[in-house]
Amino acid sequence: MAQQESVILRFDAVKFHYDEIKPILNGVSFSIRKNSKITIMGPNGAGKSTIFKLITGDIQPVEGRVLITDNASIGIAKQIMADEYKELTVREYFATAFTEKKHNLDKLITDVLDVVNYHIPLDKQIKDTSGGQQARLLLAHALIQQPDILLLDEPTNNLDDDGIGHLTSFLIMYEKTVVVISHDTYFLNSFTDGVLHLNEYTKEVKQYQGNYLDVLEDINAQIEREERKNAQLQRNIQDRKDKINFFSNKGGKMRKLAAKMREEVAEDEANMVDVMQEDKTITRFDIPAQEYKEEILGMNHISILKNHEVVEKEVNIHMRRGDRLFIKGPNGIGKSTLLKRIAEEQTDGITIGAGVRVAYYKQDFSGLDFNKTAFHSLKEMMGVPDDEVIYRVAARFLLSSKVLQNLVGALSEGQKGLLVYARFVLQEPGLLILDEPTNHINFRHLPVIAEAINQYEGAMILVSHVPEFVEQITIKNELDLGRI
């Protein structure tokens, strides 16, 4: 077999759970060939990141084996920069990619930053970079190791259009194995040649060949076939049960016939297939707006970054209930920093009305207390907590009562995102600040979220690099930080 067709990674009947009552993977088997580009697909919390941790060896299977051919090296670009790295300089951060000191480290860093279309002083601290810049650094950190298997966890989060285009081109040309988790449909369809579909209900994985959109069509067609088969079997079962009830009250041969029909019913019930469930979509929701008659937000000057230098700019922005502002600009100009300063009123040039409740979707979820349960994270949003309301709102976002008992830090990134939206519903904010609000969210949920944001009647500020999402929201006012 040619080398490009040989298997580089295999899962052999892998089972994994943190809690025996709640399995995550149940007898998962699949193989990935060298140089292939594979998507892992499945709903939030189904175990996609768990598969990555098993590949990297961060966790071990409860049963089964994960086999890596010829000790192939593995690099992973994670979703979010770990806090332990944020105090490091860019140079120090990249040094952590190697076990031995590299004397040509600066050149290696410069070369790999060229690959991700990014340039930055190597003595700059990670904490002083934006979410989009950190996304590029995370990817470059994985690439500088030149891994045989490259794992990408939501790599387009926080990237602008140029960044996504550059990453896509690179992955198409990348001559090694890539396994990616992403909810960005068009990004995935542009370069992947196979899909691992993780079924949330059976805890198993099914492998498909072909590009992402073709696989989605195959999955939907399979669901329809299985539902038709089950419907026919269910009709047969009900028909026989009706006859059994009739014949059972008769004597002799009729009773024997009823017994035979019971066997046929049991056989049909055994043949009922477990229908592959599509990803569930969150229920339509509204974000109630705080009643507030005065000015909600005023800004007369702001700070931005140009060529890594802070530049002060005069602005004249006044927002009342119902006003919406879209802030745009390239990665690294200071959009996220500006949103943080607005939310926290960190500068003299920004004023928020007294008593205004501010709701803030931070792209890294740093506004959440990871040591609280999801339930308490929701409870703290209510002036007068009502457990019934909390559970009802959480259910709209697919956050079950079991999920709510978990620590926020134990939730998947997608579940954290949905938790933030559930908090908004309970908080009833006067000012909604959204920093990349599609980050980590399953694409099936985005139309529902866009509708809720568009219907929100309070003041709102939005930053997003996803034009198809922004287009669903009516916004008249725009602040382009790249042009002021």
UniProtKB/TrEMBL annotation:
Any one GO molecular-function label of the UniProt entry: ATP binding
Stored SUPFAM superfamilies: P-loop containing nucleoside triphosphate hydrolases (SSF52540)
Coiled-coil stretches noted in the UniProt entry, renumbered to this chain: 198-278
Span of domain ABC transporter: 9-225
Keywords of this entry: ATP-binding, Coiled coil, Nucleotide-binding, Repeat
Keyword Membrane: no
Keyword S-adenosyl-L-methionine set for record: no
Domain of life: Bacteria
InterPro entries with a match to the protein in the record: AAA+_ATPase, ABC_transporter-like_ATP-bd, ABCF, P-loop_NTPase
Identification of the protein by name: ABC transporter domain-containing protein
Organism of provenance: Candidatus Magasanikbacteria bacterium GW2011_GWE2_42_7
